[in-house]
Amino acid sequence: MPNKTKKSVFKENKFFDINRLPKSEGMILFPISMSRCDNSQNPNTCLKFIYHLNSKVKAPCIGINFIYGDFLYLYSSIASSKLKEKYMNMVINHKNALKKLLYKERKSFQIQYAFNFMVWNQLYLGTNDFSEFLKKLKKIYKKDKKFQKYIKEDAKHLGKRLDENQLGFFLEEHLSMYLGSYGKIDFPNDYIQGKEKWILWVYPGKAPKALIYLYQLNPFNLKNKENIYLNSPMYNPESKELYCFDNIDLETYSLD
After folding, report:
1. What pTM does this model have?
2. What residue spans define the domains of the chain?
3. 26-247 has CATH 3.40.50.11710 classification
4. How far apart (Å, rounded) are the C-alpha atoms in residues 253 and 208?
């Protein structure tokens, strides 16, 4: 049975910056939204975020993976052939521009092969049973009124129409982050080579309610004692806040 959600004792839902990153091997994951490639996640802004995190590194034992959400955007009524061409070019251009910036700043980022670039459907290959997890999550969503409520609130906040495509987008995106935090997805990185003991997702913006609820619920009763960021899985580099999901009261938590 899924775990019951935890009622937070910290009603203010306050969040703080990271003082320093662990000295053990770890993985920082940057999911790149295709809708943000040219604005809040453009290459120059990503570089700024990396510099900020680099100031918190105390040992050279961290890999960084950029994960392009191209395949997620196939949850659409637009022909997949048109979307493929559009997002293929966006991914290539963003990756090449960011790699050039990282190489230009190689005095600061000397371990160039610590940076890895991947597309969304590689997550499927990194998981033995992603489709089965997704199928089960959809069944949970259909029965869980709170999950439905938070998905609706997230969609409204983002100005999205909650149709079947948008629902599929949300569920798969959240599931991927959840599975990743619990070590159920292998993230290729030539520098870390699967030795990561912790995983931190870095994304500009507030954590969605449904994502927080999924972690609090832990519907598949997963465990990952090594990951010290398991209960604080997401960092917002814009506001410089680490979101501790365990300490969030979703009824008082605001997306604004």
Report:
1. 0.94
2. 26-247
3. yes
4. 10
